[in-house]
Amino acid sequence: MLFLQGGAPTGGAPASTLLSDTAAFATTPVPGGGGGYTLDINGVATAVIPPGDAIDGAAGSVVSAINAITAQTGVTATYNAATQKMSLTGANSFTVADAAGGGNLTEVLNLAAQGDTIQPISTQLGDISNALNVTLTARSAVGAKLQALSAVSGQLQTDVTDNTNVEAGIEDTNVATATTAFTATQTALEAAYSTTTRLEQQTLFSYLS
Question: Where are the beta strands (DSSP E) in the chain?
Fold first, then answer.
């Protein structure tokens, strides 16, 4: 579906703005030789649009004049009262122009001369590209977090293994053997203390005698 959007009237005009209200438009509407306006859409001319007609989709408006020939042109006009913009939509490429001697309505409503697939497809591809970039960024962030969690998990597993080894060493200790070794060490230490004490009580004369 192709889309062509015209500009809004200036001054915040209401949806029922008339073509005769020249102050509502940036470009002054100038009727053609027949006293009205005629658009040529895909080579098909609209009926003459009187200068007192409104823009919106009510009967006797620019929108209704365009939609009256939709069957021949494949182009439909809509009017957004909130944005005060008229849009043309077609299933295929289409052209829009002022008919010969039909006034300057395309300039007044800021309608481009052609609606084609280039801009809509480009916009859609851009949207898809942006969505992919967002997805890839999110995946990268998730991957980094998973890697950090994996590192923490590995460290915790190492700590568990070390603690298990320490626990096993404590639980597997032979109490009798450990007690004997401790007693032997204590006896040796006491003997060393006793020897040190005796040596400290000796003087030089003790060795000379």
Answer: 2-5, 39-41, 44-45, 75-80, 85-90, 94-98, 114-115
Q: Is 173 helix (H, G, I), strand (E, B) or coil?
A: coil
| Cα–Cα distance for residue pair 176/79, rounded to 1 Å | 99
- How far does Cα 147 stand from its chain's mean position? 25
How far is Cα 32 from Cα 99, in angstroms, rounded to an integer?
A: 9
2 and 91 Cβ atoms separated by less than 8 Å: yes
With contact defined as beta carbons under 8 Å apart, do 12 and 25 qualify? no
Domain edge (last residue) among 101, 116, 131:
116
My answer on whether 134 and 100 are in the same domain is: no
- If one counts the domains in the chain, the total is 2
Same domain, 98 and 139: no
Q: Which of 61, 83, 116 is the last residue of a domain?
A: 116
Contacts 24+ apart (CB under 8 A), 117-123: 117/2, 117/93, 120/1, 120/2, 120/3
Q: What integer best gives the mean pLDDT of the chain?
A: 78
* pTM of model > 0.70: no
Angle at 42 between CA 38 and CA 127, to 5 degrees: 115
Q: Is the pLDDT of residue 122 over 50?
A: no
